[in-house]
Amino acid sequence: DLIYGAISGMTESLDDPYTTFMEPSDAKRFRENVSGDFEGVGMEIGLREGQLQVISPLDGTPADKAGFKPGDLILKVNGSSTQGFTTEQAVERIRGPKGSTVTLTVAREGWEEAKPIEVERATIEVPSMDWEMKEDNIAYIELKHFTENLSASFRKAALEISKKEVDGIVLDLRNNPGGYLSVAQDIGGWFLEKNEVIAIEDFGDDRDDKKYKSKGPGTFSDLPVVVLVNQGSASASEILSGALRDQRGIKLIGKKSFGKGSVQKLSRLEGDSSLKVTVAKWLTPKGNLIADKGLEPNIKVEMTEEDYKNQEDPQLEKALEVINNLINN
Questions:
Q1: How confident is the model at residue 31 (pLDDT cuts 50, 70, 90)?
Q2: Catalytic residues, which ones?
């Protein structure tokens, strides 16, 4: 306990919410998260200015059904303040066996006061993507999380899409909290020519930057594309969005992204504990910093409480309008 406490104290002294020490139980949960299967409420959370907030609820999960929204502040977990929590500490308290419940006290923009929301935990299988054909030969592709299995799922979908008559693509990265860089690099390769830069890893000081490039196949590199983003788009989502914007001038539609653009190195330690340390920052191909800034959309479109209630999607409607204009012009 003393050693774990000392290591945690050292990482906290760096004042970086993404540099954390994970005890064995926390490390296990982290591995479950990136593999895509765990028991909990089903939402990605993070720290913004020291405050715990929802990055995005996952579709169809208890958190989604309970009405959580990107940007919600989590003030308490089962009555205990989250002040000073690391993300991992919060996850430890929010997750639990399926069938059990957890009460989260939430503050939301537009609410006069915080409200407690009780959620029943379940087994969460993180979906990687969905796609469908829309009218006017538009392929709508929704990427939900950059988990280990997304590259294979996307390849299968891309091969199916390429056999159809497709005039344009709407790529939806809203509420996608990110994941593996290598997966974002794989997906980017379908939209960019081979060897185009997807992201730059900036180590600071006098160290050389590292560039991550497209490996192809570039199947969709000539098709008109627009990308949907919002405040729940983070990390790998922002890397892919920034690459498509910088390299092809692809328009981003929606709201400003989260701004999680730091690179973590994960080391497994003795006893199955882990240390996750920020070692660099991500830059878009044109050298723009993502961390704490996020990506500003080219076309801003709000989603109101009324839109959510009526299951309307003005952001997607705008994206379809823009892609049709690109096709017809």
A1: confident
A2: 235, 246, 260
